[in-house]
Amino acid sequence: MTEGLVVKSHSDFRYVETAAGILTCRLRGRLRLQGQNVLCGDKVLVRVQDQGQGAIEQVLPRRNVLERPPVANVDQAVVVFTLAEPPLNMPLLERTLVAIEREGLDVVLCLNKLNLVSPEQVATCRQHFAGTGYQFLTTSALRGDGLLELRASLQGRLSVLAGPSGSGKSSLLNALEGHGLATGSVSARLKRGRHTTRHVELFPIRPTGRVADTPGFSRLDLSGLPPGELDTCFPEFIPYLGLCRFTGCRHNSEPDCAVKQAVADGKLVAERYTRYLELLAELEEQEKKRW
Ligand SMILES: Nc1nc2c(ncn2[C@@H]2O[C@H](COP(=O)(O)OP(=O)(O)O)[C@@H](O)[C@H]2O)c(=O)[nH]1
Ligand SMILES: [Mg+2]
Ligand SMILES: [Zn+2]
To answer: From the CA of 268, which ligand is nearest?
Structure first.
């Protein structure tokens, strides 16, 4: 038996990278009966058979599982966004960040299409996220800026890409590795047909990085996230949590709130706090409906 990593999944087939090369494994028998799906990113034990074939005997314990794309053991999400073409939708971007925090993944911000914006615009955006501790990359897939830093950020980890359609996710992967992914306008892509999630693949980013080919976090409703846990999805709030007068403080109308005080003192970015309040109101509304 040998250990391997599932790097591609296509209907009933799983392609497992092992010391003996990539083995083609068909899902069958025991795993099927246990109702266990085998996902890209899974570490598995494989019985090696003839002619590059193998049989998956066991899926090793997972650290996490994403629903969409269906990938296991993801380390980080690289959020590719732009200030122009398309213009920045900050509420959507921050909703994406909360969804990623909720999954417990690391966040890398990647501001692409650097060739379309001024240094001042970039600096303002960087400042907005300065307190979060998120790595902030600036790239241009077209001009080649920042590709070394992006490659470095992907090493030794399994990443998913997130961010709006047209921000340049496929272009960046192509610029790094020439994967030949389809790029272009949304309408052009719809004509070519939708990407099917029955097929998922992990692309190698040399020397040791891997990226899921299917962008993640396309479903961004935060339903089921308890309103009281939203504050932990804003990493710059974390030093202040537990310092409020009331335990369970939602940092809204409560008196003696450490988060509100930090905003008033200019230690937290006011626009981030405002977004927190918007999302809190939405989650509290959903919570009410459930009762
Ligand atoms: N001006 C400019 N255009 C870019 C850059 N990167 C990608 N694009 C273009 O943006 C469009 C959408 O890119 P694509 O990679 O398909 O975006 P995706 O939907 O996020 O995968 C394409 O026409 C790309 O050529 C860049 O750095 N600068
Ligand atoms: Mg794409
Ligand atoms: Zn508070």
So the answer is: 3
Q: How far is the CA of 184 from the centre of ligand 1 (A)?
A: 6
Ligand nearest to the CA of 240: 3
Q: What is the pLDDT of residues 195-221, one digit of tens each?
A: 544 689 999 999 999 999 887 776 678
Reported residue count of the chain is: 291
Which residue ranges form the domains of the chain, and what is each CATH number? 2-62 (2.40.50.140), 71-212 (3.40.50.300), 227-290 (1.10.40.50)
Render pLDDT for 51-105 as a digit per residue (tens, 0 to 9): 899 999 999 999 999 988 899 999 999 999 999 999 999 999 999 999 999 999 9
- Going from the C-alpha of 29 to that of each of 17, 35, 36, 58, the distances in angstroms are 21, 10, 11, 12
> What are the tens digits of pLDDT across the range 267-276?
999 999 999 9
**Closest atom, ligand 1, to C-alpha of 115:** 28
> What's the gap between Cα 269 and its chain centre?
23
> Pocket around ligand 1: residues whose beta carbon is below 6 Å from it?
112-113, 115-116, 140-142, 165-171, 183-184
Distance 42 CA to ligand 1 centre (A): 31
Whole-number Å distance between alpha carbons of 163 and 174: 17
